[in-house]
Amino acid sequence: MDSFSSSSVVGLGAVDPKLQHFIKAETQKQRFQQLVHQMTELCWEKCMDKPGPKLDSRAEACFVNCVERFIDTSQFILNRLEQTQKSKPVFSESLSD
Amino acid sequence: MEGGFGSDFGGSGSGKLDPGLIMEQVKVQIAVANAQELLQRMTDKCFRKCIGKPGGSLDNSEQKCIAMCMDRYMDAWNTVSRAYNSRLQRERANL
Questions:
Q1: Is ipTM > 0.85 here?
Q2: Can you give the residue ranges of the Tim10-like domain (chain B) (predicted)?
Q3: Which fold has domain B14-93?
Q4: What is the pTM of this model?
């Protein structure tokens, strides 16, 4: 899905600082929302068996862990990429590790 | 998100654009887009969980399953939202 793009109002933001601030804030909020959508989808696959009358504590804990581990994974990837970038640049044949 | 912005940017022909009105309209459009996204993913997940071999109609058990699934998906979404928010705040506190 094409998430809300700020490019169509960026011209307006250039003149009005209030709009500029608004765009920044909304963009950040959207990024948050998008990640929640994405993680909910992913973690649903990992944590949900058969939908019951309520979210039991085990499933809830799984969702919380899932979010944490997803963020950890994202950070891990960024950090390692940064490290491997120093020895070998990204766009080389040896990227497949 | 289809359509993007509405054609009326709160100018109403006067030639002047009201930023306040634009912001309100944009907020509404964002909310709509988020609701659509949520529904799309929910439908996908609940179809997968609740519908086996597609029959000639949705039987009672399937409908009950879908209803429960919707509620659980919302619970999951809220849990994820809270957990993510906590993590972000923790990260910010560590900076």
A1: no
A2: 25-85
A3: Helix Hairpins (1.10.287)
A4: 0.79
